[in-house]
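Sample intake — Precorrin-8X methylmutase
Collected from: Candidatus Thiodictyon syntrophicum
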Amino acid sequence: MNSPAAPSVTAQVTRAGRAIEDESFAIIDAEAGPHPYDPGQWAVVRRMIHASADFDLNGLTAFHPRAVAAGLAALRRGGRLLVADVGMILAGLSPARLARFGLRPYQFIADPDVIAQAQAQGTTRAVQAMRKAQAMGLLDGAIIGIGNAPTALLEVLRLIAEEGVRPALIIGMPVGFVSAAESKAMLAEVTEVPWVLVQGRKGGATLVVAAIHALLALAAGPDEPVA
């Protein structure tokens, strides 16, 4: 008897898990109703709804016109960097999925030098973490995921405008009440760097992780299920 095919690294690894996930996506598709997204964008939004049970993301999620294509191109080239604002994003990502595309993750929010610089300069750790990533040459061509710290996103926007930094894609979804909505509104005005964002106060590391996993599944291509 032939052994069953090994599951994709972008899907659930057990038959029961895949069945539950498939049923969840079917429910989301049925309950979401009409939406403004193309198939690639909807794969991202649907995964975010799956992670949060928040149907408001159908409408609140916005995409730069080149966002999905740019993210997939970066992943398929392999060896890309992923720079996150907080460790929660890296903790939520599947090591197997990252390894599939050689995606190398970084975050610096708790580094002693980052904390010391933030204290000395009267800024946030998130600002200094992004400055450290830039000083290390990690931001150009990287996928940047921001789910918690609006000041991290504001610093990336400054680096784009003032220092010519060019990430491959920004997944800008900081959650909160101070500068969260405003930082994402500013990101929405950026034309030279592709982005995905959640408008308003909603966001969080969970949504960033879901968006990245959706892009990894899309990048795997037709031979691996988009799940």
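Post-analysis note: Confidence is low (pLDDT under 50) at residues 1-9, 223-227.
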